[in-house]
Amino acid sequence: MARGDSAAFDAVYEQIASSVFGVVKRVIRDPAQSEEVTQDVLLDIWQDASKFDAERGSAVAWVMTLAHRRAVDRVRSVQKEAERERRVARDDIPYDEVAEAVESSLERERVRRCLGSLTELQRESVTLAYYGGYTYGQVAGLLGVPTGTIKTRMRDALIRLRDCLGVAS
Amino acid sequence: MDAISEEDRARFERHLARCAECAQEIASLREATARLATATAQTPPPGLKERVMAAAATTRQRSPVTADVPARSAWVRDARIRTRAWLRSLAWRGRLVVAAAAMATVAVLGAAVVFGVSNGTMRQQLSQAQASSQQAAAVLTARDATMMARTVRGGGTATIVMSHSMHALVFTAAGLHALPASRAYEVWLIGSSGDRLVGMFPQARDHMVGPVIASGLRSGDHLALTVEPAGGTSRPTSPMMLDLVL
Predict the structure, then answer these.
(1) Ranges in chain A annotated CATH 1.10.1740.10
(2) How far B151 CA sits from the closest chain A CA (Å)?
(3) Which of chain B's residues have a Cβ under 8 Å away from the Cβ of A17?
(4) Cβ B3–A26 below 8 Å, yes or no?
(5) Which residues contact residue A28 at a Cβ distance below 8 angstroms, ignoring those fewer than 6 apart?
(6) What would the pLDDT profile of A86-117 be if each residue is shown by its tens digit?
(7) CA–CA distance, A99 with B168 (Å, rounded to integer)
(8) Over the Cα atoms of chain B, what is R_g?
(9) In the CATH hierarchy, which fold is given to the domain comprising A95-165?
(10) Rounded to a whole number, what is the distance in Å from the CA of B141 to chain A's nearest CA?
(11) What is the pTM of this model?
């Protein structure tokens, strides 16, 4: 493998590793498993970089989609529902982590503000589904609302988040 | 959101392949959910990087194609080139985003310390600096961002990332000659509506200029770099070391 590639990958690691680890740990919770999944995700990115299709979105979105999916898959396949820690923070992104680079703390503040602009049901649905890794059905059960309602609310919520975060559509 | 079960996911993806409009909506929502992820960033455990880099060094990159033997080698080659280009652009953009954010904030904090600026003003300036670094980040990560590199006359390389949809670009130059204290580098936008100063850089720190954002681009605008008297000028007065039609 050309040396240029590993140098590039080194810099890619610096840019995305904390985001990948952050979201994986947020979903999986267990530090050791989170580290394992993070390592798998980063290696997959290395191996499959050629599958990235710029027509379909930004590189960061591609990476985060992959990371989140792997985390959710891990949670669903390995951990039994009963073992899972049920405490999913519903209203907030935790602040207990080490100070981040300027960019990510600004980003965090912005995401937090945009989440705050959602209705309570929208916010709870998004938080449980995205950060908790629950399915529509499970979110509906936890919140005591029909699945159809959850699906519509979640779509509305994502559209609102997209607009609030200024993502080009 | 990955909130659907495995079977539903497969069905959903088959549907997406046929529905361009849905795919478009999903892509934009995916960008939004990616932001939910980046907002949770936290420092990975020590040692992870070494393990990942070591594993990558012994792992071959996968090519996207397996069939059709004659076409294969070209495909593999193209894929490698794409991969490399993608990794480079991601790496490069990442460095720039961080540099832009850090520089803007450090500059304001530095100024605040030196001049003992009052709290309110400082806060206002900080939020301006943050806004500009966010703007730079937005340009660098825009879906239609294109990167151009040009040689600067007299030495150095300019790198420009431009987003047509945002009518904005981020400019940096490296490897520039150091200037005497009486001179400064100036970056300009030159167009039908006149010349606009994008940024002035009295000292090219580490022979670098920027990152600086130029917004409100119009088609036909030129981007130029000149050396001017340190006090600044209202329009370019010296030969252009770089003249790029946008």
Answers:
(1) 6-92
(2) 21
(3) 44, 48-49, 52
(4) no
(5) A34, A37, A71, A74, A75, A133
(6) 444 443 444 333 333 334 567 778 888 888 88
(7) 30
(8) 23
(9) Arc Repressor Mutant, subunit A (1.10.10)
(10) 7
(11) 0.51
